[in-house]
Specification:
326 residues, mainly beta, Porin, twelve-stranded antiparallel β-barrel, 45% strand, globular
Length: 326
């Protein structure tokens, strides 16, 4: 549950990006000013189960906010490469399960992306390729002793004018692969969590962690449909499948007999989750944009090994954003 909340805090920034989360791969055409499109955004989000205490066995209300900084720079000359960066600070306004004190600000990882549109493609297709460097500025990444992450991604889409051109529909397919370099395979404590393991003179090394294993690679496949309407309205519906490859379990021995302990037959080094987003943006003018929507993360399993409902569960959040665009 703790790791899901960390992931939710990071994915709140999906709502802070252009076109309600169509990430670095969009809007890389040369602007009038090289830094045009840079933005500062404030998002507020609330878990839907906050309004329904009896919907789950445990009641854990969740209300928070995130301040996001998204600078953008278009390289000069004949280059079509745009550099995009992101950093946000999130704060849970309710009682947090992961912070050291009430309303502690949490810094996200800092990333910078180089994105470039692909050459003209047949059939009216538009595409973008991007490469992202992620630096470990968040508490979770520092605890996992992450060094850096690299993410390569690509997207393909096609615009379809309808209704005489007043409405433009654009389906977008996005694929990405990330590699994560880390020296810690699991979150560590200062001492074993089971203090009696040394009673027989054995080693406690296999117990010196929380059980939350680090990812070495992440694969993502996304499908989105954006709709542009008159009066500067943009809506999006997206679905993203995320697969995380975990670092292999360390070999351990029985602290009493010294014999190797074989891994469980049901153990898996993969974790899967889905992300669903429904959102809308209204560009009030060239400077201000407001938006809102609904997003749901569906992890692989609940803590009791049953499955979550896919589109609406305890991780579903409603969000509203306000952005200043430069």
């Amino acid at each position: 549950m703790r790791m899901v909340r960390y992931f939710l805090a990071g994915l709140v920034t999906v709502a802070l990006l252009p076109a309600v989360g169509q990430a670095d791969e969009d809007a890389v055409a040369p602007p009038a000013r090289r830094w045009a499109g840079s933005s500062i955004s404030l998002a507020h989000y609330i878990g839907v189960t906050t309004f329904a205490p009896g919907v789950d066995l445990t009641y854990n209300p969740h209300v928070g906010q995130a301040l996001s900084f998204d600078p953008r720079w278009q390289l000069g000359g004949r280059s079509r490469i745009a550099l995009l960066a992101h950093l946000d600070v999130s704060t849970e306004l309710t009682d947090s399960d992961v912070t050291s004190y009430e309303r502690q600000p949490l810094l996200s990882d800092f990333w910078v992306t180089a994105a470039r549109p692909l050459p003209r493609l047949p059939g009216g297709l538009e595409g973008t390729a991007a490469l992202r460097l992620v630096l470990p500025t968040s508490r979770e990444s520092r605890a996992r002793e992450r060094l850096f992450a690299l993410r390569a991604s690509g997207s393909l889409g096609r615009a379809w004018p309808v209704g005489g051109g007043d409405i433009v529909l654009k389906p977008i397919l996005t694929l990405s692969a990330s590699g994560i370099a880390a020296t810690a395979r699991s979150l560590t404590y200062d001492a074993p969590t089971i203090t009696t393991c040394r009673a027989e003179g054995g080693s406690c090394a296999e117990l010196d962690h929380s059980g939350a294993r680090s990812s070495v690679a992440v694969l993502e496949e996304g499908l989105a449909l954006t709709a542009t309407f008159p009066h500067r309205l943009t809506a999006v519906a997206s679905m993203t499948l995320v697969q995380q490859r975990l670092y292999a379990l360390d070999e351990i021995t029985n602290p009493v007999t010294g014999e190797p302990v074989p891994p469980s037959e049901v153990n898996t080094n993969w974790r899967h989750l889905m992300l669903y987003v429904l959102g809308v943006d209204w560009k009030i003018n060239e400077r201000f944009t407001v938006g809102g929507g609904l997003q749901t993360i569906t992890p692989q399993q609940k803590p009791d090994s049953t499955t979550y409902a896919p589109f609406f569960n305890r991780h579903t959040q409603v969000y509203v954003t306000t952005s200043v665009v430069f």
